[in-house]
Amino acid sequence: MTGDNTIAVGVGGDVGTYALVRAFHEQYGITGVVLSSVATRPMQDSAIVENVVVPGLDDTETFLSSLEEVARRHAGKRPILLTNADWFVREVIVHRERLDAAGFVTPYPSLEVLEQVSSKEGFAEVCERLGIPTPRTVVADIPKLVAGGGRAAVADLELDLQFPLIGKPSNSADWHYVSFPGKAKIHHLNDRAELDEVLGHLVDAGYPSAFLVQEFIPGDETQMRSLTAYRDASGTVTLLATGRVLLEEHTPGTLGIPAAILVEPYDDAMEAATRFLDATDYVGFANFDYKLDPRTGRHVYFEVNPRIGRNNFYVTAGGANVARVLVEDQVLGRPIQPLRATSEVLYTVVPFGLLLRYVLDPELKARLKRLKSEGKVVNPLKYDRDSGLKRRLIVEAITQNYRRKYAQYYPEPTSTGY
Q1: Which letter does DSSP use for residue 328 in this model?
Q2: The whole model's pTM is what?
Q3: Count of CA atoms in the C-beta half-sphere (13 A) of 227
Q4: Can you give the residue ranges of the ATP-grasp domain (predicted)?
């Protein structure tokens, strides 16, 4: 296969979308088209990406018609549709028939499977059935609270968990559309007053889904783990990659997204993810978030994202190009020997020196310095085959801007990560 008959089409202008297009370019020489609602810096002055700005892209008809226009402009090429945003994943799945008619490859699970796994309650139910550990959770049903009296009902919510706690949406797609003061991707809750404040805002906003309140698993960000998998149309898990998170992002809109990952194999997590994907008959990329519980030595699983994840380049850098499993399955339709990303590599979007400041373990810090000296540190935006002078300056500015972000939102490392 060559780039003559295929094109990568991304939706969303973040680092993860660029990393996906880069993987296709590395493997097949394929350039990409990326749709975003505004021009984004990760795509700026790229030689491998055409960034098409589409205002109002989260409107369904705008989204679909824009993709159809891309397919028309590239008639004769098979467009492979890629996105890292939950609300776009849902749109693709709901309107798959129309996108398929336009010629798109849509490597995503069925709507039934999406509904099951993208709900964090549904995720927990599957895990319980399979014996996969999850955190203790209280479900705050916001529509039920609204019907029960609104803010007055919030104070009556029973909570048999000890603070500090973690609060997060059950449905990420619904979360995208709600707005309230202090909204974050994940809420760290130190006491009941903080919890009631968030729930009150959600009640006032008429949020249509549940909000999950979970026990906090002790340990800093280096206890967090990431797993990326791909299960093909025949039901075979053809890609598995795991890594130790070293640092997460801390701006409100990106809180909890890994900013640095050390590729490490965790066989127990790979086995658990395989059982989960098989049990739900999942198809496509999936990204699991989990954490090592120092109290038990076991991995505790938080959620599965029905997409590859913003931090997906750690997989490609670790020796398993993510484009290959997708193309072999969805374009060429042939079996492939399962791939494992096992090469010891450090993935980071933040400056190396800044990362070291937040890694408190001396042995781990020494290990990272060794990888740096061996040239095994990768930034998805720093690509030798997309490195004109202006592009290099833009990427360096993006990278160095993390110093300002951490100074504002997470100035000093802590034992809890917040």
Answers
A1: I
A2: 0.91
A3: 28
A4: 124-331
